Amino acid sequence: NAGVTQTPKFRILKIGQSMTLQCAQDMNHNYMYWYRQDPGMGLKLIYYSVGAGITDKGEVPNGYNVSRSTTEDFPLRLELAAPSQTSVYFCASSQGQVRYGYTFGSGTRLTVV
Amino acid sequence: DAKTTQPTSMDCAEGRAANLPCNHSTISGNEYVYWYRQIHSQGPQYIIHGLKNNETNEMASLIITEDRKSSTLILPHATLRDTAVYYCIVHSANQAGTALIFGKGTTLSVSS
Fold first, then answer.
1. Which residues does residue A111 pair with via DSSP β-bridges, in sequence order?
2. How confident is the model at residue B96 (pLDDT cuts 50, 70, 90)?
């Protein structure tokens, strides 16, 4: 049981480049989330999804886009990367019920230079 | 706006109980208290949650005051591997489609 898988683990981008951070879960969870974590800070919610075809903005959505075409996958797209997007990105999923917690991936460490 | 207040850091000796406090004075009746922890560079890990009764699982115990305005996470016998940032979060079970909001948490350092 792999849980939540994020790829890549590390990436260096140049300013203005674009990339997609991949997130996949094999637990048949309807709810999926993207967070970013800057050094020494807590997690900030970027986007989330309550099911295939449904996405919504979180606290810090600017500069990002998401899609949810399947239950398993929730990719995060960065267009025109900026140094302010240097961060660690975590994907998570949940069954959406209170008694179940979130399962997080191991993160993608992104540096924009 | 932060719904919880936690100390920035705490120290604990290995083998002793670690008691991590959290204030949530504006908690509403349908909001649960969740605890997560994040070991260095890893994704956060769910620990426990509760509504108004005390809860215990294999990882920790959660004590919620009768007025629900504060709670304490207890790690009964802390080990070096419990060194992590601990997040206290309040979230409504009725907020379908919303997500947990993380603050800065408490950095717990366990030493031998």
1. A12
2. low
